[in-house]
Amino acid sequence: MNLSEVNWDFNAAGTWPFPIKVATIVLVSILVAAAGVYYISFDQLNELEQLEKKELELKNTFEIKQKKAINLPDYREQLKQIEASLGEMIKQMPTKAEVANLLIDISQTGLASGLEFRLFKPAAAIRKDFYSELPINITVIGKYEELGLFVSGLASLPRIVTVHNVAISPTEPPLLKMDAIIKTYNEESGSVKKKKKKGRRR
Question: Where are the domains of the chain?
């Protein structure tokens, strides 16, 4: 077969020799298939890859939620323990009617420890989440052992009392001066119950 004698005009393709027709059909088929892969399959492959990533993310999310579901009874038990501890702490908070008596208890604890009060000044209440913080600025004079007895006595009071911003400096030997802020806490009436109700609505 002499290729120079073939009329390569596409309109005359019907007169081409059989092998050339077969080769042309195969070539056109390959080009069509390649174009199909490029314009259709590539998009589908990209979409498949995105779906596989999404599937992996969903599996991870499911595993995390499954672990939480398995541990849910433990979480509920911990929550009960926390609520019980919170209830006990709230019981140790003085009511508004008891605050005055608590202030007397604090001052008497200092005097019983042998300290001299130079300052005993309750400050304005500071509103927190479900309680109020009641700070008391104090300045006391006494020996090191007496200061220790005072702080220990505060910790032994039936109501919650904490000591903050302690600054001890020497004064007339063997005495020391202690500046501090004593804080007690007062429950905001009904605030805990309201908070529980809000949590249940969720």
Answer: 1-91, 93-192
Tell me the fold of 93-192: Alpha-Beta Plaits (3.30.70)
Instruction: Label the pairing between strands 161-170 and 176-187.
Output: antiparallel
**At 24, which amino acid appears?**
T
* Per-residue model confidence as pLDDT tens digits over 135-153: 999 999 999 999 999 999 9
| Token couple for 10 | 């596409």
Q: What is the pTM of this model?
A: 0.54
Q: How many angstroms separate the CA atoms of 63 and 66, rounded?
A: 5
68 to 5, 9, 37, 59, 169: CA distances (angstroms): 80, 73, 44, 14, 53
CA distance 202 to 193: 15
Model confidence pLDDT, tens digit, residues 40-60 = 667 777 788 888 899 999 999
The 3-state DSSP class for residue 163 equals: strand
**Separation CA 39–CA 28 (nearest Å):** 16
Check: CB of residue 139 under 8 Å from CB of residue 110: no
In angstroms, the Cα distances linking 187 to 92, 157, 192 are: 10, 17, 8
Residues of the chain above pLDDT 70, percent? 80
